Amino acid sequence: MKKIVVALGGNAIQAEDNSAAAQQEAVRKTMKTVASMIESGNQVAITHGNGPQVGNLLLQQYKGASENNPAMPLDTISAMTQGSIGYWMQKALDDQFKFDNYPSQAVALVTQTIVESNDPAFEHPTKPIGPFYTFNEMQKQQIYHPDYTYKQDAGRGYRQVVPSPKPVKIINAPIIKNLLQNHFVPIAAGGGGIPVVVDHGRLKGVAGVIDKDFSAARMAEDISADELVILTTVDNAYLNYRKENQQAIGKVTVNELKQYLQEGQFAAGSMKPKIEAAIEFTEKTGKPTIITSLKNAAKLNDGVGTIVYNE
């Protein structure tokens, strides 16, 4: 039995439209795949992104805000999306377990993640959230939201960007470990967890969205996981991605990945944070990280994907 942290990308939730029904159907299909990993005997803790959902909800909040019904702050919106996505995943997993007659239950945990108040990310927002815009659409959005920052996202369009501080500690890690030991499936640190700082001995929510890959690595380390699995839209990380000389990365050492990072091989906001998270977890723990597609999740023992290991 292995203890595994599975980090699900946006493709695990996103659908052709942003309705709850469409997103829940996408989650249902994803959880069927994840259930097969759990039912094979592994202890699995699940985390997930929330970039599109948190951005969309932020827009809804501001469009519907009034003096008597003000918009919620970003840390609370993060908690709201963590709760809704966690609920969808929990329900879908429990339905699958019942169908398969498997004796377990999922638990969606609203998770807080400690960050540093002086993290330079608060001065330089980089985390994309919400929908994609063309250049003209982005300019219109800036008229309505002059305090927002927009940046090009991996050549796919413009998105709002917010601060993305590095996770220091998953506060609820002991609860996650306890749930795993008692044969439950925790869904935790969704969207990277709600960013909080320690202010005079008390926890205080701050505006930002933590990258879920970094929080997945932090959580995997904090719960002493045997493996970190990052599931995304592609089968492997690639060198020279989308070029004629594109090359899939199979087994690779931490030092080799560091060299590829220096060469600028991985797109910011896309593959780069996954690579950095893999390096962080594997270098600190000596345990492997696998980066591959969701459809390969049931074949991890076959050596699929990009497998990161220490020398």
Description:
- This protein is an alpha/beta fold and 311 residues long.
- Helices cover 36% and strands 23% of the residues.
- The protein is globular and about 55 Å long.
- The protein starts with a strand and ends with a strand.
- The model has no long low-confidence stretch (mean pLDDT 92).
Oligomer class: single chain
Q: What structural class is derived from the secondary structure elements?
A: alpha/beta
Compute the gyration radius: what is it? 19 Å
* Helix count, DSSP H or I runs of 4 or more residues: 8
Helix content: 25-40%
Major sheet: arrangement of strands? 2-1-12-16-17-15
Using DSSP, what is the number of strands?
17
The gross shape turns out to be globular
Give the rounded overall mean pLDDT: 92
Major beta-sheet overview:
6 strands, mixed
Distance between the termini: 24 Å
**What is the H-and-E element order?**
EHEHHEEEHEEEHEEEHEEEEHHEE
Low-confidence stretches: none
Strand content of the residues, in percent? 15-25%
